[in-house]
Specification:
single chain, alpha+beta, Thiol Ester Dehydrase, Chain A, five-stranded antiparallel beta sheet, 3 helices, 23% helix, globular
Length: 124
């Protein structure tokens, strides 16, 4: 993977992304677990084109500061940047913005795995 490679994704907060719906809170705002999924998808999508078909990546670590709440209907812009590759591990910095404000920032690590071997290992 190319160091410094950035990728941006856009998401709209829907009811099934809310803390109330997911059970992580009692309010109809973007749940941290849903925000993490948005950021992981952004990272996954950024490196997918550079991988061979039989490979994929799995998230193995996330460190996130969720700084500001977002209402249902808000547009979320997620950005990832590849900051390191150590063998099969790829490290990213991530951030999420809404209406020009930073709502989250952190770090994410993904491991590159062979799809079939990974799934076969789960059945042992």
């Amino acid at each position: 993977m190319e160091l410094g490679m950035e990728h941006t994704s856009q998401f709209i907060v829907e009811e099934h992304h809310s803390a109330e719906f997911l059970g992580s809170g009692d309010l109809e705002v973007l749940a941290t677990p849903a925000l993490i999924a948005f950021l992981e998808k952004t990272c996954k999508d950024s490196i997918r084109p550079a991988m061979e078909k039989e490979l994929t990546s799995v998230g193995i670590h996330i460190e996130l500061d969720h700084l500001k709440a977002s209402l249902i209907g808000a547009q979320i812009r997620c950005t990832s940047e590849v900051v390191a590759q150590e063998g099969k591990l790829i490290r990213f910095t991530v951030k999420a913005e809404s209406n020009g404000s930073l709502i989250a920032q952190g770090k994410h690590t993904r491991a590159i795995v062979d799809r079939e071997r990974f799934l076969a290992g789960l059945n042992k």
